[in-house]
Amino acid sequence: MTEQPKLWSKFWPADVPETLQYPDVTLPEILRKTAREHGEKTAIVFREREINYRELDVLSDKFAAALSSIGIVKCDRVAVFLPNIPQFIIAYFGVMKAGAVVTAISPLHKERELEHQLNDSEAKIIVVLKSLHPIVKNVWSKTQLKNAIVTNLETFTSETEQNSNVYSFQKLLTEDANPQNVKINPAEDLAALQYTGGTTGTAKGAMLTHANLVANTLAFAAWIKGA
Fold first, then answer.
1. Is 47 left (phi over 0), alpha (psi -120 to 50) or beta?
2. Apex CA 194: angle with CA 188 and CA 199, to 5°?
3. Contact present, 125 and 145 (Cβ < 8 Å)
4. More confident residue, 158 or 122
5. If you count Cβ atoms within 10 Å of the first and of the last residue's Cβ in the chain, which end, N or C, has fewer?
6. What is the CATH number of domain 25-185?
């Protein structure tokens, strides 16, 4: 049976391939490759600060090593309760490098939504903006959280004093950049639990593997090149 032409084919940009070959790698491996090949290129711009790909790779290595030293192991859930700042990206890659699973939480969430996502994802650690830390404290006893990592908006520093379960983001980045070599199966192992907006009920976590995120990243890159 002859395959019928797809209706959208006649509108498809000539310089964008209709399909791609997706490598069997993790998202952090793509970052490492980019850092090797384009290390000096800018990865993040935030106000007056620029971070290149090599710096991002090293910083996320340090964060991964810190998570492991705290006790995070493969498949543990780590919540990232931050706005769109460099620390979000560093933490996102760092969690994956540690073999753990990221669950990003909207900084607009209030206590009810925060408590639900923390419990549903079974997060053990939360990376949180200092101004949002009071909300976390209010739900702490109702969750499985064991540690918080606190940062602020202006810099990587935080005035929060470290204690038995609260850590400074900046101080953790003083760790050696030698994360444990965690074996990950890109097609099977989770990279992220991405929650829905909850418009039709309680927010639900979409289970995304490394292969899912790599495919999405490469497909997006193909369209950007063709733009």
1. left
2. 135
3. yes
4. 122
5. N
6. 3.40.50.980
